[in-house]
Automatic annotation (TrEMBL):
One of its GO terms (molecular function) is hydrolase activity, acting on ester bonds. Keywords: Hydrolase. Belongs to the 2H phosphoesterase superfamily. YjcG family. The active site is at H34, H116. Its EC number is 3.1.-.-. This is Putative phosphoesterase GZ22_05260. Gene3D superfamilies: Cyclic phosphodiesterase. A motif (HXTX 2) lies at residues 116-119.
């Protein structure tokens, strides 16, 4: 099974993201708005899951809650017609990301870490141009607090569910 580690933004940011995702995000029904801090990875054995949870508890304990900023909409174009809320990476967020690629989670990074919350993906060129043209003129100013991260598990139908939640800085 595939797993990932993500941070869910505030309800206010989720509502704003979903106002676009309902129409423009092909994954709208599969996962709620989130910021992935670790790319998906497989765990095949129950023992692997137990070890992963143990390591995530350690990482959460060693990581203090932190803030992050959302300031605008950005894009992965021309590689992908995807639009997202751009998260300005704090040092704490970058450190958390790095911890999730060491030790038990050692692995090759497929992409550079660009923290974001997807609001539109798999768009036609026309949809992309229209939506990007509208959204790049808007200001999105959110100051968010990360107090938890979540281990998500992909289900057979493609939906992602929360397998476990980890509170930052908690003994």
């Amino acid at each position: 099974m595939n797993y990932t580690v993500a941070i869910f933004p505030s309800e206010q940011v989720q509502q704003e993201a979903n106002s676009y995702r309902k129409r423009y995000d092909s994954a709208y029904a599969l996962i709620k708005p989130h910021m992935k801090v670790r790319q998906p990875f497989p765990l095949n054995e129950e023992d692997d899951l137990i070890d992963a949870v143990s390591e995530l508890k350690r990482i959460a304990r060693e990581t203090a809650p932190f803030s992050y900023h959302i300031e605008k909409v950005s894009t992965f174009a021309p590689a992908h017609n995807t639009l997202y809320f751009k998260v300005t990476p704090s040092e704490e967020l970058k450190t958390l990301h790095e911890k999730l690629y060491h030790g038990f989670f050692e692995g090759e990074k497929a992409y550079a870490f660009i923290p974001h919350i997807t609001i539109a993906q798999d768009l036609s060129n026309g949809e992309y141009a229209d939506l990007h043209g509208t959204l790049k003129l808007k200001q999105f100013q959110y100051e968010e607090q990360a107090t938890q991260f979540h281990l998500l598990q992909e289900q057979e139908d493609g939906k992602w569910i929360v397998k476990e939640t980890f509170t930052l800085g908690e003994e």
